[in-house]
Structure to design on (432 residues):
């Protein structure tokens, strides 16, 4: 099937949400720098932040090749309502339990998303996906190790994992909010779609969380809107901080 | 000068180069990873294409070890500077994910260079890594396999941190990557 304008629009919409997710979770991860409960965690979240921001740059570059503005302009000059990240990634880091559960649920979705995108007909995206997959594997391992340890630790650590899961779950379901071009990007095999991804994610995370003795929150509605620019009040302050230096002098050479 | 023994899966393996390209290849043997002074960028496996002719123009393609690696920009500049000394003044250094870097692209000599710097080299893999391999990484100081992985995240994106239960030293490993 020929790629039409609608297919390209679908591709651009998808790349924006992926890149914005990476950038914003990268910024949130970096907020653990200097605050980690132990030195290794300080380094782990800082390293994951660096990976995510590097990955967002590669995705913004793909968008630039498709005619969008350059990565710095796109990353640093938009306001909250122009971002397409899901509300999961913009939530403040909270306590370590919240951050670790979010990290696992987000990265497991990413790992599966990029696994699916390796066979995308859009070759530039397939290429970066091959690269990201190996990096994200370490992130998933990190999240799983902690969730398992803490869930099976003592009563308090188990309760805190369960409470964190209850809080993160509806936000995590919002990752799979469908875009306006799901049919188009699926029919030309750019990406099989959010529903397909969500099914694979459920098949992966539910058995793992259950094996840790955690209960999946029932009757939990997805927090939607992020993909369409509807965000929590927490995103704009994050952007103000992230963009502060850039906005002092956007023409500065670094 | 020894030349890099590019692994079979590396795009420069058995690649026929013209004399100008060969000159570039020879020169890049002395461009070292800015964070691992014993390892040159050819042995690291990140140089994926070299093109040159009898003019002062040349193209070199690099692939990042990790997408967020801040050393890549530095290495691009180092390639520019190195080729200038060979008379190539119009050099284009590009970054591409066409060849996704993985730890199997490090040459045999590169693995030895890592060890010389005190880093445990990544084990060879078949395209899929069971992360359990990290848990008994041989100690680069005493060779014991009685080691513990402390964290897969180290001082740079490409390193993990370990402890040797035999010689009681902490050490770093270069991560295996698919």
């Amino acid at each position: 099937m020929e790629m039409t304008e609608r297919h390209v629009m679908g591709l651009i919409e998808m790349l924006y949400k992926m890149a914005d997710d990476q950038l914003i979770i990268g910024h949130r991860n970096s907020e653990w720098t200097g605050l980690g409960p132990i030195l290794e965690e300080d380094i782990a979240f800082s390293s994951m932040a660096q990976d995510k921001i590097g990955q967002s740059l590669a995705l913004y570059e793909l968008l630039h090749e498709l005619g969008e503005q350059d990565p710095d302009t796109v990353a640093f000059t938009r306001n909250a309502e122009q971002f397409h990240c899901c509300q999961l990634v913009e939530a403040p880091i909270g306590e370590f339990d919240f951050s670790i559960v979010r990290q696992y649920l987000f990265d497991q979705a990413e790992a599966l998303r990029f696994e699916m995108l390796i066979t995308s007909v859009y070759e530039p995206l397939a290429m970066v996906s091959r690269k990201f997959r190996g990096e994200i594997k370490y992130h998933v391992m990190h999240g799983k190790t902690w969730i398992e340890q803490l869930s099976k630790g003592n009563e308090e650590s188990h309760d805190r994992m369960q409470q964190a899961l209850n809080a993160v779950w509806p936000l995590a379901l919002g990752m799979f909010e469908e875009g306006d071009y799901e049919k188009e990007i699926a029919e030309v095999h750019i990406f099989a779609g959010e529903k397909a991804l969500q099914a694979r994610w459920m098949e992966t995370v539910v058995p793992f969380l259950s094996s840790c003795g955690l209960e999946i929150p029932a009757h939990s509605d997805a927090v939607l809107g992020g993909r369409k620019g509807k965000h929590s009040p927490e995103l704009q302050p994050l952007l103000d901080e992230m963009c502060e230096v850039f906005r002092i002098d956007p023409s500065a050479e670094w | 000068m020894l030349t890099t023994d590019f692994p079979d899966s590396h795009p420069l393996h058995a690649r026929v180069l013209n004399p100008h390209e060969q000159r570039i290849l020879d020169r890049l043997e002395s461009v070292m990873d800015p964070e691992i002074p014993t390892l040159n960028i050819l042995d690291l496996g990140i140089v994926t294409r070299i093109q040159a002719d009898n003019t002062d123009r040349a193209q070199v393609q690099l692939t990042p070890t990790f997408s967020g690696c801040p050393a890549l920009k530095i290495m691009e500049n180092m390639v520019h500077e190195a080729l200038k000394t060979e008379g190539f003044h119009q050099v284009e250094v590009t970054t591409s994910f066409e060849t996704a870097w993985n730890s199997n692209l490090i040459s045999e000599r590169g693995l030895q260079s890592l060890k010389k710097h005190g880093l445990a080299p990544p084990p060879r893999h078949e395209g899929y890594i069971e992360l359990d391999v990290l848990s008994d990484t041989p100690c680069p100081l005493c060779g014991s396999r009685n080691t513990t992985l402390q964290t897969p995240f180290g001082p740079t994106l490409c390193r993990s941190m370990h402890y040797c239960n035999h010689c009681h030293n902490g050490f770093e490993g270069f991560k295996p990557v698919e």
Chain B touches chain A at residues 64, 66-70, 96-98, 100-102, 129, 131, 150-155, 157, 161, 175, 177-178 (CB under 8 Å). Chain B has a mean pLDDT of 93. DSSP finds four helices and nine strands in chain B. Strands of chain B lie at 32-33, 36-40, 47-52, 57-62, 90-95, 119-120, 147-151, 159-164, 170-174.
